[in-house]
Amino acid sequence: MLYRENGQFKTSYRADQQIFPIAQDKAVIGALVAFAFLAVPFLASEYLFRAILIPFLILSLAAIGLNILVGYCGQISLGTGGFMAVGAYAAYNFMIRIDGMPMLLAIIMGGLCATVVGVLFGIPSLRIRGLYLAVATLAAQFFTDWAFLRIKWFTNDSASGSVSVAELNLLGWVIDSPTEKYLFCLGFVVVCAWLAKNLVRSHIGREWMAMRDMDVAAAVIGIRPVYAKLTAFAVSSFFVGMAGALWGFVYLGSWEPAAFNINRSFDLLFMVIIGGLGSIMGSFFGAAFIVVLPIVLDNLTVMVGLSTATASHLTYMIFGALIVFFLIVEPHGLARLWSTAKEKLRLWPFPH
Amino acid sequence: MSNILLNVNGIEVIYNHVILVLKGVSLQVPEGQVVALLGGNGAGKTTTLRAVSNLLAGERGEVTKGSIELRGERIEKLSPAQMVDRGVIQVMEGRHCFAHLTIEENLMTGAYTRQDGKAAVAQTLEKVYAYFPRLKTRRTSQAAYTSGGEQQMCAIGRALMANPKMVLLDEPSMGLAPQIVEEVFEIVKDLNTKEKVTFLLAEQNTNIALRYADYGYILENGRVVMDGEAKALRENEDVKEFYLGMGGGDRKSFKDVKSYKRRKRWLA
Amino acid sequence: MAERKIGDVILDVQNISLRFGGVKALTDISFNVREHEIRAIIGPNGAGKSSMLNCINGVYTPQEGKITFRGQTFSHMNSRQVAEMGVARTFQNLALFKGMSVIDNIMSGRNLKMKTNLFQQAIRWGAAEREESEHRAFVERIIDFLEIQAWRKTPVGRLPYGLQKRVDLGRALAMEPQVLLLDEPMAGMNVEEKQDMSRFILDVNDEFGTTIVLIEHDMGVVMDISDRVVVLDYGKKIGDGTPSEVRSNEDVIRAYLGTSH
Amino acid sequence: QAKEQFFPVLVYRTGAYAPNGVPWANGYVDYLKYTNAKGGINGVKITYEECETGYATDKGVECYERLKGKGATVFQPLSTGITFALTEKAPADKIPLITAGYGRSESADGNVFKWNFPLLGTYWVAADAILQHIGKANGGLDKLKGKKIALVYHDSPYGKEPIPLLQERAKMLGYELQLLPVTAPGVEQKATWLQVRQSRPDYVLLWGWGVMNSAALKEAVATGYPREKMYGVWWAGAEPDVKDVGEGAKGYNAVTMQHGAEPQSKIVQDILKEVHGKGQGTGPKEEVGQVLYMRGMVHAMLAVEGVRRAQERFGKGKVMSGDQTRWGLENLALDQKKLDALGFAGVLRPISTSCADHMGANWARMHTWDGKAWKFSSDWLQADEQVLKPMVKQAADKYAAEKKISRRDAADCQS
Amino acid sequence: MGFFLETFIGGLMAGMLYSLIALGFVLIFKASGVFNFAQGAMVLFAALAMARFSEWAPGWTGSDSKLLANIIGFVLAMACMVALAWVIERFVLGKLVNQEGITLLMATLGITYFLDGFGQTVFGSDIYKIDVGMPKDPMFLFESTFQGGVLVSQEDLFAAVIAAALVAVLAAFFQYTSTGRALRAVADDHQAAQSIGIPLNRIWVIVWSVAGFSALVAGMIWGSKLGVQFSLSQVALKALPVVILGGLTSVPGAIIGGLLIGVGEKLSEVYIGPMLGGGIEIWFAYVMALGFLLVRPQGLFGEKIIDRV
Ligand SMILES: Nc1ncnc2c1ncn2[C@@H]1O[C@H](COP(=O)(O)OP(=O)(O)OP(=O)(O)O)[C@@H](O)[C@H]1O
Ligand SMILES: Nc1ncnc2c1ncn2[C@@H]1O[C@H](COP(=O)(O)OP(=O)(O)OP(=O)(O)O)[C@@H](O)[C@H]1O
Ligand SMILES: [Mg+2]
Ligand SMILES: [Mg+2]
């Protein structure tokens, strides 16, 4: 009814290659972004900003990064937490060691440092594959955990290994209130999502996907595995690193290496898979699911009046069961569920 | 007809909740016969076989309408393993050998459901090797490292190891050298006449399929568009033109074909 | 149909031997391919036909022997070099990128020709966008040519086998190859589809002057459309010549054709 | 409408650290219930809500955001990681943090850390008290010269906190310090204890949490290191740490945060009567009076007394805001008389804070596991202010510089 | 030299304990192609069940016999593991036939969450004790040769022997039974295995039960070493480098991998650790595994990774 492609004829390939070739999609996404920028700041409570929206946005960014690596290039990584840590600590060091370093630049530099580390740990992927690689990437996780605890220089000789940042200042705009933080993250994430979307629908994106789906065939059509895999690691860790920096700077304010421990890596992988491998949109769905669900469950179980322990055990159980449930309903994630729904809508009211 | 082994009754199959592939397919396979299922790419042959052997679930497909009966028993709810227990086994399209197992191990897994003792299994193994001598020479290689044709033989041999009553063969000729294709069909005939094994085979190679089959169904776009005795089908002008490549009597050289898509109209 | 000019030797395979552990996949194989011709390789299952293509293609490294392509001689090439020199291929066991749409699969064949860097692609402004559109236009021509317009945006994993084969061909064509290696492009097709595919192959050969090396088990097709045929058996060459020569070769009849053809 | 003072309670009753988190939480909540049973804080009823953090920083932050909206009086995160994160947020929200016996050691400097209250002692206090004790046992601190002391620590900011002090002290006293980090959660310590066996230190200090403590003791048994030479921090000196080691842990010492296991104390008896006696106890009865339960109670008492003190200035029987409570905590004056009245006679020594000193006390005792219970084994020990003060100041200054904040002036101290 | 030996032997022992957990991973992977991240949770669950049941047993039977209590605990815990295997097959794996490895892996993470919550709800989250009478005191060898002797933990020795026995039995199961072959077939291709009549559901219940058994043994040994509590589920992380080093599909690989990792880890921590400030063993284990994988991407004994076109 409302959702129809009919009558939307593309007169140029360019038009067909837009991010959202279907007009309704474009409208919906446009409205959503506008809503997020213009309406949410007036509607949301401080709790919503600080405890849900900001972590949701930052983790979406990290999930986009991880999705590039896992979803698009097919290299499973369990070291994401480590790359986030690199981004956070590197950004911190740029801030603290270079006087007058703009925060934005520091975050980007954090991303770049994560890129370097990511590429380094990506080198084994040229030889090791699949689950072997997945487990091997834990090396990155544990090594960075260790390095930031042990090497004092990284933490500016802080005895405990934990660091904190001074005020966030974006070209004179002091980002202080939750709303400002939210807007900052939102802007950041929207730009990054746009860049990521552009990449995955360009030829580099096709190279990644080709590596994922069939690497021998990819080599035969002239794709260099080295280049494809390492760029995927690079781009992925760039986004992940920036997300790490934001996590430290904006969400936590002060952090220790444990903020980026292995559970973070697993959570991110969850987001990517629940959301949908190989889908930028899915990264958002996944992040929302993993950030919001436990909180909702927590609140619900507490509301029912269970003791804290029972409530949180129950939360664990429901959370685990829901993950399995979603995987069964749609192994390709929420994004696929979404597109199936769209397909149905397109056919509506005819069943097929 | 009392000896109907398999009766497929107006089934619809949907993949992924949205893609409707079979739109009411009905067919019958009498006991002890070879029935061919013909049709172009994407007609739904594989899907039909999967529906019978209950392998649709793994592809996220489901039968939404109609019924399938084996000897009068409804079988839609059975698991693939239960189907094998009832003597119905499918040779999947695209080989699907167990890559890490050797050829012989592959064959032996086929005998998993057998209860009649080691000796009997060994005997069947010898029979399979006799049918496919090439497999015997490659028995210790991992299946993944054998050639495409060898894998095809392995897949067929593996199914035979179960001593089936009915075999669903999906594109047996694909990738086989011509004389092996002949051999495979000879084997089919052999099993059919000697051991009374019933076959339902999906084939693109219409020519040979109709030579060996008793009866044929032609499937296009998820519907049965024609069926009849194999002999009769072979004589049918449309079949000749579209499936045997012999428009106007003689076989045309592939070099000279210029396509004129009358077929599209025929199907509409 | 205009008479095709068959030119000089473009690809020369000399004394190739390939072993996998104890298995001798290829033993001392030599043959050549001339420009613009359609060269078929036939032989029983496991004869080493696919392995031969894999050697030319740089997927396998033969233990012995050399390959000369356009006057340059290699004992081993890596796949990318081969691709850059203009050799494309299709695969026997469908090696498509299953998760990608038809368009993306074929576009990926244009990969070598796309030059914009990572940053341009990320911003997707100017050059990157232009490039994308240009190549898309080319790919659309291939899609038209192969008559798969209706499936453009379908993930290839969902297509029936025969169409997947076409997409595989499309991806190879997108590379604008000088030599096209086809590994059983017609397996699993019915006669009509084989006719279509034959026509595609002949058209490619005609219109773009692409040299074609073809592996096929359907003797009808091979005999009809190829200019010369190599016959392999158990890794050895047992015949080489025009279709009619090969058809009457005793060894070939015994090893491969059987009596019925 | 009845006046209510809201206390958020961050707990971890599940996960790796639950065995330690649960008794603490039970003690904390029971004390709040007890206060209500006694008529609240000058008539102001206490309400509270638990939030499960699982010892994870991000969950802690979420809990903080959720509960602060409900008018939180004071937070006690019971996790070094969460403390670090909340330290950044508390000033903006004007909610004080009590981190009694944990958190940043330099946050004792109230001039920089306006909102942090590491009451009763920091890790530097703990470490110094242990050294004092060892010194005494050897007949003077100077006897430590030439000795070898190993620190087996949880490889995290928590475990690393005592290192600066121990190093400073090593320079002064001339002992050799060996650092042996154990990766969290500390289930595998074989390499660590092989190193201990090889270098044979005279003393081992144990800075662990959760399973790491009992695993360390078991490895000590397995490598034959004498438990009498082992000294734990107060987070490594409670029942869960030794319970399943049993006899093997006999002789193992730990420094206390003043209190130990005190089932006989008046407050415990009162709680048994007023809370458990009325069927309102949070955990099992046997737990009441154990070390971590006591700690939960003590921590709750500090929070309640902070509010009570604030009421003295801002109005008795009124609900105190976070800022007002901060003033109360900053001007705590719990003398012996008050403590005795509260039922903490023999459990705690007087505590008095000021704008500059947010710690309020630097006393500790040793207790030793006798196979069945923790028994005190030393007199009161006091950390050396001469050593600690400058270190705190220096570290706090560094923090202030990094964060670009300036020290509070006298006027600010009045607020 | 004495100390080197001590470290070396200590490493071997620790490695054996890792193997015990690695075994669970290998079993399930070999038989269903599932990389089972829930193995750690299963170890914890099994140990909790055994600890609690044997704690409650005297109350039910009225007898004080420790042996009896332990046996009851073990048997009931095993029953729990079989039930668990059945539930997992019925509600999770059975519905995910023919899905990609990574989806299955995520499903096992879901199971992990569920089990963590469920186990703690049913059995509590305190520290519990499993006491199967393993000797705690150290043993000294070669006291005449080296000063102070070479210390060996008797408890570890005990555990190592049990682990070795278990592995031997399981390796035989895979090698010499026809079920072993079917299991490997399932791992290669679910759908093809189904098509030839291998009943996936039954196979999976069997395999997960066997894995449950190995989890129970691991839980018993680790539990009596560490006490039974949540952290037990994290020892599974220690087994990860072991499985990739040994090869995901090889039972003997789990042992050799375990020994190599154990020794490498301890030696590195003791000899290199102090130079780098310590605490390096965890990542060193991975770096070591990585090093081996660069030479053999399928692990030491794993099945060759096949890529062919
Ligand atoms: N798993 C799947 N998900 C979605 N669609 C599918 C799936 N499998 C098959 N289809 C669709 O179902 C239709 C019929 O496919 P099927 O494989 O049954 O054809 P076929 O007759 O066997 O063709 P071929 O001769 O090429 O093997 C095709 O259009 C195909 O795209
Ligand atoms: N990577 C490999 N490892 C081991 N053996 C191999 C490998 N590749 C091919 N072989 C073996 O080499 C022989 C030739 O195989 P190839 O695939 O080239 O045959 P083919 O002529 O293409 O046969 P078909 O017509 O059946 O496809 C076969 O016996 C095969 O088992
Ligand atoms: Mg088919
Ligand atoms: Mg081949």
Name a few traits of the molecule.
heteropentamer; A: 352 residues; mainly alpha; 15 helices; 4 strands; B: 268 residues; alpha/beta; 10 strands; disordered C terminus; binds adenosine-5'-triphosphate; binds magnesium ion; ATP binding (chain B); ABC_transporter-like_ATP-bd (chain B); BCAA_Transport_ATP-bd_LivF (chain B)
Structure description:
The complex is a heteropentamer of chains A (352), B (268), C (261), D (415) and E (309). Chain A is mainly α and 352 residues long. Chain A is 72% helix and 3% strand. Chain A has 15 helices and 4 strands. Chain A has a two-stranded antiparallel ribbon. In chain A, strands 2-3 form a two-stranded antiparallel ribbon. In chain A, a hairpin with a 2-residue loop joins strand 2 (168-170) and strand 3 (173-175). In chain A, helix 3 crosses helix 9 (203-213), helix 4 (80-97) packs across helix 5 and helix 9 crosses helix 11 (225-252). The longest helix of chain A has 28 residues, at 225-252. Helix content of chain B is 37%, strand content 26%. Chain B is built from 11 helices and 10 strands. In chain B, the strands form 2 sheets. Chain B has a 6-stranded mixed beta sheet, with helices on both faces. Chain B has a 4-stranded antiparallel beta sheet with strand order 2-1-4-5, covered by helices on one side. The longest helix of chain B has 17 residues, at 178-194. Chain B is globular and about 50 Å long. Chain C is an alpha/beta fold and 261 residues long. Helix content of chain C is 38%, strand content 24%. Chain C contains 10 helices and 10 strands. The longest helix of chain C is centred in the middle third of the chain and has 20 residues, at 127-146. Chain C is globular and about 60 Å long. The relative contact order of chain C is 0.18. Chain D starts with a strand and ends with a helix. The mean pLDDT of chain D is 91. The radius of gyration of chain D is 20 Å and the shape is globular. In chain D, a hairpin with a 4-residue loop joins strand 12 (363-369) and strand 13 (374-376). Chain D contains 15 helices and 14 strands. With 415 residues, chain D is α/β, with parallel strands linked by helices. Chains in contact: A-B, A-C, A-D, A-E, B-C, B-E, C-E, D-E.
Write the layout of secondary structure elements.
The complex is a heteropentamer of chains A (352), B (268), C (261), D (415) and E (309).
Chain C: E1 9-20, E2 23-34, E3 38-42, H1 49-56, E4 64-69, E5 72-74, H2 79-84, E6 87-89, H3 102-108, H4 118-123, H5 127-146, H6 161-173, E7 179-183, H7 191-208, E8 211-215, H8 219-225, E9 228-233, E10 236-241, H9 243-248, H10 250-257
Parallel strand pairs in C: 3-8, 3-9, 6-7, 7-8
Antiparallel strand pairs in C: 1-2, 1-4, 4-5, 9-10
Helix pairs in contact in C: 3-6, 5-6
Chain D: E1 4-11, H1 18-37, E2 45-52, H2 57-68, H3 80-93, E3 97-98, E4 116-117, H4 123-138, E5 148-154, H5 157-160, H6 163-173, E6 176-182, H7 190-199, E7 203-207, H8 211-223, E8 230-232, H9 239-242, E9 253-256, H10 266-274, H11 291-314, H12 322-330, E10 333-334, H13 336-342, E11 351-352, E12 363-369, E13 374-376, E14 381-382, H14 385-403, H15 410-414
Parallel strand pairs in D: 1-2, 3-4, 5-6, 5-7, 7-8, 8-9
Antiparallel strand pairs in D: 9-12, 10-11, 12-13, 12-14
Chain E: H1 2-32, H2 39-61, H3 66-91, H4 101-123, E1 138-141, E2 150-153, H5 154-176, H6 178-188, H7 190-195, H8 200-226, H9 235-246, H10 251-276, H11 281-295
Helix pairs in contact in E: 1-5, 1-6, 1-8, 1-9, 1-10, 2-3, 2-4, 2-8, 3-8, 5-6, 5-8, 9-10, 9-11, 10-11
The site of one magnesium ion has 4 residues of chain B, from α1.
